[in-house]
Amino acid sequence: MNVQQLRKDDFYLPILRLLEALGGSASIEEMEQRLVDEFAFNDADLAEAHEKSGTPIILNKMAWARSYLKVAGFLANERRGVWLLTESGRNALSAGEAAIHTGVAAAVREYNARRKAASDASAAEEISPDELSFEAAATTEDVGDWRDELLSALKVMDPTAFERLCQRLLRESGFVKVEVTGKSADGGIDGVGVLRMNLISFQVLFQCKRYAGAVSSPIVRDFRGAMQGRADKGLIITTGSFTADARREATRDGAPAIDLVDGELLCDLLKERQLGVTVREVRSEEVSIDMTFLSTI
Hints:
Helix content is 44%, strand content 16%. By secondary structure, the protein is an alpha/beta fold. It has 2 domains: 3-141, Arc Repressor Mutant, subunit A (Orthogonal Bundle); 153-272, Trna Endonuclease, Chain: A, domain 1, CATH 3.40.1350.
């Protein structure tokens, strides 16, 4: 498959269909895995990345498709990482693919018009219903600019600094006794921590990988072998993505489960805890003229 020629539009209908099939909601991981299977993407396809940012092209375009469908009101994501099919989305699905594309294009044009009216045209960055650069455009889900910038910064960090950042993230996420071991020839194990959940605690071994591409299944398999008998769970954190085989290997029946944190989720977690990410709320006004009032004054 020519990944470069793949359009975000190609995912509109499949995303709406799979959400309906899954009962109206799905996690990002569920959506990505279903789309990978439906389009029969192989590991080489999933490993192709934008030259500038190192962001995997296919997963990036899936994210853009979700964003555009959200702009159109066909999807919502009230909880981080969980996407919902709205009533408008169900109606669009019933109306057919042409209606979906028309609805998205109209919503994006309206969104751009509101942004231009709310801010100086020179400062506003538009998203476009046409096929533009996925790295250059902006989106209401913030899939583009800030994540690309953050991932680029993470990928050039010193390896030990990146490990310390992951250590801090785990502490902020409820882990205690988090240690970075940094031992060589230890099956890729970079550290250990204890996750406390009420009265229960789990010993967790973790691995930190500053990848531009996709983590493959052998890496997950080797990590599981290294953690055998030493921990209750495993965790792999990467700035890249995971191949379909790697995700399957992480949840293989009869083997200890390994949780996977890819670049997109890592960005979200750092943003939530404001680690290296500053979030500033911006307010805008929408002004309209009340002609009825003026005509009766």
